[in-house]
Amino acid sequence: MRRPRKAYTYVDDGPAIYVDSFATIRREARLDGVPTDAEKLAVRMIHGSGQVDLVDDLVIHPELVSAARTALMLGAPILTDARMVAMGITAGRLPADNPVHCFLTDPQVPDLATTWGTTRTAAAVSLWEPLLDGAVVAIGNAPTALFHLLEMILDGGPRPAAVVGCPVGFIGAAESKEALASFGTDHGIDLPFVTVRGRRGGSAMASSAINALAQEAE
Ligand SMILES: C/C1=C2N=C(/C=C3N=C(/C(C)=C4\N[C@@](C)([C@@H]5N=C1[C@](C)(CCC(=O)O)[C@H]5CC(=O)O)[C@@](C)(CC(=O)O)[C@@H]4CCC(=O)O)[C@@](C)(CC(=O)O)[C@@H]\3CCC(=O)O)C(C)(C)[C@@H]/2CCC(=O)O
Q: Where in the numbering of this chain does the Cobalamin biosynthesis precorrin-8X methylmutase CobH/CbiC domain appear (predicted)?
């Protein structure tokens, strides 16, 4: 293998890229409204999206960071809506070799989705049930997965320790995240969460949030 002749000027030192990125974010983002223990979470979510104004739309439950960290240190599983989210989680940052699950490809999922008349991602969330109590949830793609999770909890299902709820897009994304943000007020069920109001979100952002919650270091 031969490295091609370098024709452009760019930074190609991986660790230096990270250091410069985080310094840029801290210079440009308005982090003063973010709770101190959630600063690194906000920085990583901005890093994963490339948008410093993301901070204006972040909603962070006051107990989110401590609840998620405690659960992860105790070995809680991480449940994701899409394989993309699972793949973005850095195993080496997880404090207790935490298992990461996405059930989208489980053979039961297509039939469940057809029978219930819903998406595969929402149907796959039902397969979380035996693992959901005290788990850390990361939803980065599918609004229907987030709605389905909230419906399971309202139906008396197990409660996760913390929810990263960042589905992206135009249909149902903003609405599902509003439902998460107002879940405690609307239903009297206190669920530590982080979300981003509006259409923004995505699998990379959800993975970044978990990576921040997993480890303090940047
Ligand atoms: C409506 C859906 C949306 N998907 C979006 C964006 C992206 N999705 C990608 C991929 C590869 C996958 N998306 C599925 C989850 C698939 N996407 C949907 C659904 C049709 C319904 C979800 C919902 O509305 O709640 C969903 C299929 C389902 O039945 O649940 C995926 C499972 C489809 C598939 O390949 O089978 C698949 C996830 C695979 C995995 O990781 O495990 C994109 C990479 C597509 C692309 O850009 O090429 C992209 C990734 C975005 C991200 O950051 O996650 C939207 C925009 C979120 C859209 C929902 C909202 C809208 O307004 O359209």
A: 17-215
For the stretch 100-141, pLDDT in tens is 999 999 999 999 999 999 999 999 999 999 999 999 999 999
Model pLDDT for residues 15-40, shown as the tens digit of each residue: 999 999 999 999 999 999 999 999 99
47, 61, 101, 187: the catalytic one is 47
How far apart, in whole angstroms, are the C-alpha atoms of residue 136 and residue 100? 10
Which residues in 120-137 are b (16+ Cβ under 10 Å) and which e? bbbbbbbbbeebbebbbb
Domains defined along the chain, listed by start? 14-214 (3.40.50.10230)
47 as an active site residue: the answer is yes
Specify the pTM.
0.95
DSSP 27-73: HHS--TTS-GGGHHHHHHHHHHHT-GGGGGGEEE-TTHHHHHHHHHH
> Which atom in ligand 1 lies closest to the alpha carbon of residue 168?
57
- Distance (angstroms) between ligand 1 centre and the Cα of 50 equals 20
How far apart CA 31 and CA 13 sit, in angstroms, is 27
Q: What is the ipTM of this complex?
A: 0.91
